[in-house]
Design goal:
Order of helices and strands: EEEEEEEEEE
CATH superfamily: Rieske [2Fe-2S] iron-sulphur domain
Strand content: over 45%
Radius of gyration: 12 Å
Helix content: under 10%
Shape: globular
Distance between the termini: 5 Å
CATH topology: Rieske Iron-sulfur Protein
Strand order of the largest sheet: 2-3-4-8
Length: 101
């Protein structure tokens, strides 16, 4: 396990997603109603940056071509048989930690 401090909770308000570099990986960290979720940042379609997309509920939309992913599972909204990697997240005090291992 490689738990890394990602951000302060206040840096990603509810209903938003951000692109972060952690331990050589680029992840998308989303805040869904106060719960944090981390997925791989790279869209399966053409490699778009999911952390730069729009978050609507649990779905993040890739800004390049509109592919959507459920940030709680990493699964594609259009084809749940495929998806991006999910990473475990813990909130410790005011900090959000992600397991990049």
């Amino acid at each position: 396990m490689a738990w890394l401090r990602a951000v302060k909770k206040s840096e990603i308000p509810p209903g938003s997603v951000a692109e972060l570099q952690l331990d050589g990986k680029t992840i998308a960290l989303a805040n869904v109603g106060g719960q944090f979720y981390a997925i791989d940042n790279t869209c399966l379609h053409r490699g778009g940056p999911l952390g730069q997309g729009a978050l609507n509920g649990q779905l993040v939309t890739c800004p390049w071509h509109g592919w959507q992913y459920d940030v709680t599972t990493g699964k594609s909204a259009m084809n749940p048989a495929v998806g991006v990697t999910c990473y475990r997240v813990e909130v410790r005090g005011d900090d959000v930690w992600v397991d990049c291992g």
